[in-house]
Input
Amino acid sequence: MSNHPGVRPLRPLEIATAPYQPLATTNLTGTLMYEGGCLLFRGEESGTLFLPVFPAGSSFNGNALLFHLPGKGDQWLAVAQELLIYGHPIEWQALGSSLYEPMLRQCGAYAPFFVANVRPAN
Output
């Protein structure tokens, strides 16, 4: 627990979400993993860890992610399941809200990646 006023720790199973953006310039194959209170995506080829930013309405229960894609049915994706994600890298500053400050403090070592779509890899 932090002693700084206005700073809160991440709630258990909190994930980064933002309004849906359909732009997908990159696709990555890899798996979701939950480490240090951060839901991360590990790229299969590079081994690089990213902090996925999911569309608003997505949620995480500790074992699986409920991926919300506007206008489509929500989709359950398991942690450690091989996935193909489509989206684009973003900068922390592009999220533009003090609501992300606790997430930045806890998960800021990982580059954010906005997820426009996702599907099982196999």
The radius of gyration is 14 Å. The helical segments are 92-95, 101-107. The first helix runs from residue 92 to 95.
